[in-house]
Amino acid sequence: MQEQKRRTWAEVSLVNIRTNYEALRELLPSGCKFMGMVKSDGYGHGALAVSRKLQELGADYLGVACLDEAIELREGGITLPILILGGTAPEELPLLLQYQLAQTVFDFDMARIFSEGAKERGEKLTVHVKVDTGMTRLGFHCDDTTMEQSAEQIAQVCALEGLAIEGIFTHFADSDGDEAYTVLQMTRFLTLLDMLAQRGCQFAIRHAANSAATLLYPFSHLDMVRPGLALYGHYPGEDMEDLCPLQPAMELRSKITAIRELPKGTFVSYGKTYALQRDSRLAVVPIGYGDGYFRSLSNCFSVGLRGKRAPILGRVCMDMCMVDVTEIDSVELGEEALIYSREEAMGPTVEEGAALANTVSYELLCALSKRIPRLYQDDPATHPNDQRNID
Question: Which residues are marked as active site?
Answer without folding.
Answer: 39, 270
